[in-house]
TrEMBL record:
PANTHER family documented for this protein: ATP-DEPENDENT CLP PROTEASE ADAPTER PROTEIN CLPS (PTHR33473:SF19), ATP-DEPENDENT CLP PROTEASE ADAPTER PROTEIN CLPS1, CHLOROPLASTIC (PTHR33473)
A Pfam family recorded for this sequence: ClpS
Quaternary data: Binds to the N-terminal domain of the chaperone ClpA.
Protein name as catalogued: ATP-dependent Clp protease adapter protein ClpS
């Protein structure tokens, strides 16, 4: 049996499907203080100060920024917690979720 080891498999091995993932997206607004956004990112998304600053500034400059990617339930929970933190402090801070393609 010549070269049988080098014949490629027709398909990827079953059971190796990629999990469905959802992005959590931070939206910019004109009212939420920068420090508050950074504090929320650190508390809910377990970011360092530097990571949180980078995400906040990207959303500030570009209008939005992907914060992180999770399975659906975790993404929706983190987005809701971020929105509630803003609401609780009287700010329009907004996170959305979007299925990753
Ligand atoms: N644009 C807000 C400000 O200048 C900061 C901000 C950044 C708000 C990212 C929401 C998201 N105070």
């Amino acid at each position: 049996m010549a070269d049988v080891d080098t014949i490629p498999k027709a398909k990827a091995k079953p059971g190796t499907e990629r999990p469905k993932l959802w992005k959590v997206i931070l939206l910019n607004d004109d009212f939420t203080p920068r420090d508050f956004v950074v504090a929320v990112l650190k508390a809910i998304f377990r970011m360092t100060e530097g990571e949180a600053l980078g995400v906040m500034l990207t959303a500030h400059r570009r209008g939005s920024c992907v914060v992180a990617v999770y399975t659906r339930e975790i993404a929706e929970t983190k987005a809701r917690q971020g929105n509630e933190a803003g609401q609780g402090a009287g700010y329009p801070l907004a996170f959305t979720t979007e299925r990753e393609t």
